[in-house]
Write a structure and sequence with these properties.
The complex is a heterodimer of chains A (156) and B (174). Chain A is built from 6 helices and no strands. Chain A is elongated and about 100 Å long. Chain A folds into 2 domains: 97 residues, Cytochrome C biogenesis protein (Helicase, Ruva Protein, domain 3); 54 residues, no CATH class. The longest helix of chain A is centred in the last third of the chain and has 28 residues. Helices cover 67% and strands 0% of the residues of chain A. Helix content of chain B is 40%, strand content 20%. Chain B contains 5 helices and 7 strands, in the order αβββαβαβαββα. In chain B, the strands form 2 sheets. Chain B has a 5-stranded mixed β-sheet with strand order 5-4-3-6-7. A two-stranded antiparallel sheet of chain B has the order 1-2. Chain B is elongated. Chain B starts with a helix and ends with a helix. The chains are: A mainly alpha (156), B alpha/beta (174).
Amino acid sequence: MMRYVLFFCAALLAAASLHAKEAVPAADDPVVEKRAVTLEEQLRCLVCQNQTIAESRADLAMDLKKEIREQIKAGKSDEQIKQFLVDRYGDFVLYKPPFKPITALLWGGPFLLLVGGVIGLFVYQRRRRGRVVQASLSDDEQARAEALLQSNEDRA
Amino acid sequence: MKRFLIPLGIFVVLVGFLALGLRLNPREVPSPLIDKPAPPFTLPELVDPQRSFSQKDMLGKVWMLNVWASWCVSCREEHPVLVAFSERNIVPVYGLNYKDDRKDALAWLSKLGNPYTMSIMDRDGRIGIDYGVYGVPETYVIDKQGVIRYKQIGPVTPEVLEAKILPLVKKLQG
């Protein structure tokens, strides 16, 4: 029994040290830390593509967190740091890709769809209006219709 | 009848987009480093850490840089392909041993074979960041002027080797 307990404790210790290795290298300076986290929230982790670097615990994300903090401390601006990453990993690291010819459809697509929808709606409405024929009644029919409406009103 | 053609047309286009999207691999992000000079480095050799190697040493030659690590599962899958390829002596393959333990790396090579002309150590992954490495293994083809001409993300397969890398290397060596 004792051996199992010891083994369990050893396993726990091992797990704890594994975790310690992954800990985020937080900067001492809260201003640096805040800037770093704000930046990391706008950047994609390429290992786990649906997470930001801030959220990710992947090895590469850890390295990039360290890199970003070092660059902030070295006095680089947010734009310079973003450019540093874009130069290496491409626009894909940015959660908000820049507007340029290759991303024009990405940014303009929703508006194109909206315009297309409005045009479609307009055309549809016009066609429908054309299809409603102005029906004319003969005198006899007119009298019958009025009589019907009249009887309806009486009942009400 | 004509009324159904418009939604059918939209549907076909949509299916076309989806079919295309399904066949693309989201992990293959186009590298901005293609046609750019290979980022500079000077790193210690794996076998003899006293000696160092720089990408400048390869100017004038076409070469391949393969990022690998003993902890990387896909590298194990790729390794026999590289070993067989290196035996053909077409182009020198250099290894960038990425965030690895030197002992593990050496054991790996002696056990599975060494396809590399030389391996260098990027212990903290700093050079890996410069090369935009995010999924080991990755392989770069670098031309005589030291410009990156091709990047393979994930394992090099015999198909990729024959269809993409070899024709490019032949052209560059030309």
